[in-house]
Amino acid sequence: MTNYTEIMNWIKILSLEDYSAGNFIRLIRVKGKKICLVKVGDEFFATQSRCPHAGADLSQGFCKDKKLICAFHRYEYDLQTGRGAPGQGDYINIYPLEQREDGLYIGLKEKWNFIKKLFDL
Ligand code: FES
User: Fold this and answer.
1) Fold of 12-118
2) What is the pLDDT, as a whole number, of residue 21?
3) Euclidean distance between CA atoms 110 and 67, whole angstroms
4) Residue of 69, 73, 91 to mutate, ligand 1, most atoms within 8 A of C-beta
């Protein structure tokens, strides 16, 4: 039986040369989605770019202890779980990443793939 939760499109977002760049927070666009891509040390994280508090661009923020901090009102989000700091009562979406031989890939669920798989098209 097919596990439909695992249907994803994997899209290359960084080539190997970009791995050597230092820490960064970048806004990238993937298939029409705005993604906040974060590099901390050797680790990458991908989150939604829109802050759930008041809509600021999270890629304008900064990182501290694997937390992404919004530049506008300093709300904090855990880069691994997406959870907001205690008392905020919110979260951000975290997207799966895979480091492959030729670069970094992001996994995005797509409804059309789900429908195609469902009906064996
Ligand atoms: S808009 Fe991000 S903390 Fe307010």
Assistant:
1) Rieske Iron-sulfur Protein (2.102.10)
2) 76
3) 28
4) 73
